[in-house]
Input
Amino acid sequence: MDENNIEIAEDIKEESQEKREKLTIEAGKIANKIKNEIKIKPGDSINEICERIEKRIKDEGGDFAFPVNISINEIAAHDTASINDERIIRENDVVKIDIGVHKNGFIADGAFTLDFSGEYGKMMDANKEALENAVSKIRAGVNTSEIGNEIEKTAIKYGFKTIENLTGHGLERYSIHSSPSIPNRHSGRGIELKEGDIIAIEPFFTLGDKSGYVTEMDRTEIFSAYSFESTRNKDARKLMELIVKERKTLPFAERHYAKTASNRIALIELIRNGSLMAYPVLREKTKGIVTQFEHTVIVRNDSCEVVF
Output
């Protein structure tokens, strides 16, 4: 290995479709087990929830594909516990829990929403219906535009909006977001799905009088290795080597690697020089409440198999 070059994707080898599906299904079983045993209530610590779920994933023989996302109210995605996070779930919060599990790089990704306010049951029901309607359309040969149309049609039927600039996505080995993109609205052009494609369908809903768009906040908790750039900071190089060894190209949280002052400085250097990709927290532009439900599916000839 060259002194100034870390191979981000080394040891990521292609596997057979049979093994790809087998490990994705195994990851889905772990994710489903943990989802079914999660107990979350107002007063719970966001940090404790994230740490507990991530630990359970490892206890079950998997690893987290990305930091557990806990996105509250108008926050749509990319939020997770920070270092020494003191936030708690509050009485009236609408909480999105997004969980990813991987087995040897093969990923199952799913999400659900908890409404502790009791005010957004109709939006949650419509959101869940949109997800199930979208899943019912999936088969080899279907165009992704048809899926987006089905999601948006369901939202409009009940007086809600989809988040237009968030989409579902393909899942590849050690890659959370790959082709094809699965729109959450009507789209004139798309991609035909193929048998064996593994995709995540994740409609996000908001209220009908809101913008239906997300924007980036100034806060970022989640990063991934991108392209190691030369640095004189030995701590930064050491940290990058550890991240690549443990995560390859999968996202991680600042709390996973920067608990000391020196590692925080190293992380800042890796962000500054372009070695890491940042995923800023995403918020609905007009601060509308957002709900989310998500399945990972394997595309079959005449339908699809839901794995999480």
Observations:
- The first helix runs from residue 17 to 37.
- The chain has two domains: 17-216+286-306, 218-279.
